[in-house]
Write a structure and sequence with these properties.
5 helices, 238 residues, Nuclear Transport Factor 2, Chain: A
Length: 238
C-alpha cells in the first residue's frame, strides 16, 4: 500500500498541470454557445431568390477536366454558375452570357461583407492572402480577402468563390487557442489523437488505477479509529 501511495502521489504531481489545463480549457470552450463562437449571429438572414425559369446548372462549362460540382444561383441581379473542381479550384461564369466572372477585388470584398454581415459597413482594414501563407485563424490554403470589422471580427471572402468562407470573432480566436491546448496540438489544432495526448491520458488512467486500492485502505483505517480512541479513553479513566 505504501508503494502504491508513493507512485500515486508522484503521478499526481506529474499530470497535475495537464489536468488543470484540460479543466480550464474545457470551461472556456463551453462558456458560450457554439453558434455564437462560429459567428453565425453575424450573418444577415437573406431570402433565397429563385433562378429565372429555363436556367440549368451545367450548360456552359467546357474543358478536359470536368468539375466535380456545379452550382447555379442568383448573385445580386446576375445568375452565376460556379464550377468546383476536385483540387478546390473554383471557376465562375455569368450564366446568361458565359463570360467569366471577374475575381473578387478589394472593393467587391467590402461590398459582399456589407451586404451579408451585420456591422459589415464598419470596416477597419482589408488584407489579401494568396493561400500560400493563410492566416492563423483560417488555416485554409485558398486565396481570400480578410476584412477586419470595427469590433475585431475577421470576415474571410474567397477571391475565386465570392462567398464568405469564414467568420472569426475575437471570442473564436480565444476559443481556438484553448482548443489547441485542450487537445495538446497548438500547431494545427486539428489532431485530436496525438502522442502527447495519448501519453497523458494513459498516465491519468494509471493514476486512477493506482489510487483505487488506496480507497479501501483508508476505509479500514476509518473503521478502526473509533475503537482505538475508545480503548485510550477507558485506559485514562482507569
Amino acid at each position: 500500500m505504501r508503494l502504491l501511495a508513493r507512485f500515486h502521489i508522484w503521478l499526481s504531481w506529474l499530470i497535475a498541470a495537464p489536468l488543470l489545463l484540460w479543466t480550464i480549457s474545457g470551461l472556456v470552450m463551453a462558456a458560450k454557445p457554439v453558434e455564437e463562437t462560429r459567428g453565425d449571429s453575424y450573418r444577415k438572414t437573406a431570402q433565397e431568390r429563385p433562378l429565372p425559369p429555363g436556367w440549368l446548372a451545367a450548360q456552359l462549362i467546357e474543358g478536359e477536366d470536368r468539375p466535380v460540382e456545379m452550382r447555379t444561383r442568383m448573385q445580386g441581379n446576375s445568375v452565376v454558375t460556379s464550377a468546383i473542381y476536385s483540387d478546390g479550384k473554383i471557376e465562375r461564369y455569368f450564366a446568361r452570357s458565359g463570360e467569366p466572372v471577374p475575381e473578387i477585388d478589394m472593393a467587391a470584398a467590402r461590398t459582399i461583407v456589407a451586404m451579408h454581415i451585420k456591422g459589415g459597413d464598419r470596416i477597419d482594414s482589408v488584407t489579401f492572402y494568396d493561400g500560400k501563407n493563410p492566416p492563423s485563424d483560417l488555416r485554409r490554403a485558398i486565396p481570400v480577402w480578410q476584412v477586419t470589422l470595427a469590433d475585431g471580427t475577421h470576415v474571410y471572402v474567397g477571391r475565386e468563390s465570392g462567398a464568405i468562407e469564414a467568420i472569426r470573432t475575437r471570442w473564436w480566436r480565444i476559443y481556438d487557442t484553448f482548443r489547441g491546448l485542450h487537445i495538446m496540438d497548438v500547431q494545427t489544432r486539428e489532431d485530436s489523437i496525438n502522442a502527447v495526448l495519448v501519453a497523458i491520458t494513459a498516465l491519468t488512467l494509471l493514476m486512477v488505477l493506482l489510487g483505487a486500492p488506496l480507497l479501501f485502505r483508508r476505509h479500514r483505517v476509518s473503521k478502526t479509529a473509533p475503537a482505538t480512541a475508545e480503548r485510550t479513553h477507558d485506559g485514562a479513566e482507569a
